[in-house]
C-alpha cells in the first residue's frame, strides 16, 4: 500500500514557520539564562604566609656580605642574584655539570647543591677572587696560554675545580686511577681527567684544559 500521499510535504512555508518557532524558543531561553543571577563567587583562599627571611653573613673573597634571604636560597643564587658575583654559572642546576663550582674553606663544591644559610662564617672563594689584583692566578694564566676554553661558560667552574683538585693532590688524596700510593706520582692526563670528571665542557676543550692544569700543577706530587 502506498502511503506517500499521507506523508507531510516539506514546503517553503513549513520551513520558514519552523525557523521562526526555533528562534523564538532560543530567544526565550537566552533571556531566561541572562535573568538568572550568577553563582556566588567562592571566597578567595587565604594567602599563604610568606617564608620568613633569615639573616646570614657570607664571607666571599675575603669580604663579609650580610644578607637577609629565604632559607631555601642556594649558595649559587645568593652569589649571583644577591651579591652580584655572576662568574659562577648556573648550568644544569642539579650538580651534574660543575659550572657552579666554588671553593668553600679550600674545598671545591657545587654551589647549586648547597644552601647559603649553611655557610655562615665559611670562607667562600669564587672565580672573581682567584686573581691577585691584575695578576692572574696560575691556573687562569695557564687556561689562557693553552686556550683551555671556547665559549667560556664552564671555565670559571673548571678553574675553581682545578684549584681545589691541585690542593687535594698535594694533601695526598688519591684518585681511582692512582696505582701506587707509596710512589711519587705526576699529574698525568689520566689523573687529571679522573679528578676533573665532575666538570663538563660542552665545547669539548678537554685536551687543552688538561694541558693547562698539567702546566699549572707544577712538579710531581707525593701522595
From TrEMBL:
What start and end residues bound the annotated signal peptide?
1-34
Which GO MF terms are attached to this record? carboxylate reductase activity
Q: Which UniProt keywords apply?
A: Iron, Metal-binding, Oxidoreductase, Signal
One Pfam family from the record: Fer2
Q: Which residues form the 2Fe-2S ferredoxin-type domain?
A: 54-130
Q: What is the lineage of its organism?
A: Bacteria, Pseudomonadati, Pseudomonadota, Alphaproteobacteria, Hyphomicrobiales
Protein name (record):
Aldehyde dehydrogenase iron-sulfur subunit
Q: Which residues form a coiled coil?
A: none
Q: Report the EC code(s) recorded for this entry.
A: 1.2.99.6
Keyword DNA-binding found: no
